């Protein structure tokens, strides 16, 4: 599998994760999101940026959904309730895996997902 960006072919594995995370930028995220059928809202970008920050600044940490909910309860103060459903609204195939793919991160080895 691969993605086309600015006349270049970006290599991805069979599940659509970028092989080289240095190929990622926000435009590439939009291309991957479109392939996933995702519209990137402001909150979707919050999730993507959080996952990238955790991965690159916290020894390759890839938070699970439980930790993501805990984090966003403190960040998304405009919502009455932040739970896993709040995350799935933006990434219906699984916020940890699908958002990680769009964020240009390596495929997580945790069970579950699609």
Automatic annotation (TrEMBL):
<dbReference type="GO" id="GO:0097163">
    <property type="term" value="F:sulfur carrier activity"/>
</dbReference>
<comment type="function">
    <text>Part of a sulfur-relay system.</text>
</comment>
<dbReference type="InterPro" id="IPR025526">
    <property type="entry name" value="DsrC-like_dom_sf"/>
</dbReference>
<comment type="similarity">
    <text>Belongs to the dsrC/tusE family.</text>
</comment>
<dbReference type="GO" id="GO:0005737">
    <property type="term" value="C:cytoplasm"/>
</dbReference>
<keyword id="KW-0963">Cytoplasm</keyword>
<dbReference type="GO" id="GO:0016740">
    <property type="term" value="F:transferase activity"/>
</dbReference>
<dbReference type="InterPro" id="IPR007453">
    <property type="entry name" value="DsrC/TusE"/>
</dbReference>
<dbReference type="Pfam" id="PF04358">
    <property type="entry name" value="DsrC"/>
</dbReference>
<dbReference type="GO" id="GO:0002143">
    <property type="term" value="P:tRNA wobble position uridine thiolation"/>
</dbReference>
<protein>
    <recommendedName>
        <fullName>Sulfurtransferase</fullName>
        <ecNumber>2.8.1.-</ecNumber>
    </recommendedName>
</protein>
<dbReference type="InterPro" id="IPR043163">
    <property type="entry name" value="DsrC-like_N"/>
</dbReference>
<dbReference type="InterPro" id="IPR042072">
    <property type="entry name" value="DsrC-like_C"/>
</dbReference>
<keyword id="KW-0808">Transferase</keyword>
């Amino acid at each position: 599998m691969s993605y086309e960006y600015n006349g270049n072919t970006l290599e991805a594995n069979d599940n659509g994760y970028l092989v080289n995370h240095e190929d990622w930028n926000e435009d590439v995220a939009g291309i991957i999101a479109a392939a996933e059928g995702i519209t990137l809202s402001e909150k979707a970008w919050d999730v993507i940026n959080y996952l990238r920050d955790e991965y690159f600044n916290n020894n390759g940490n890839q938070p699970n959904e439980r930790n993501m909910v805990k984090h966003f309860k403190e960040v998304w103060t405009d919502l009455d309730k932040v739970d896993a459903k709040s995350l799935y609204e933006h990434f219906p195939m699984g916020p940890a895996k699908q958002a990680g793919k769009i964020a240009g991160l390596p495929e997580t080895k945790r069970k579950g997902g699609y």
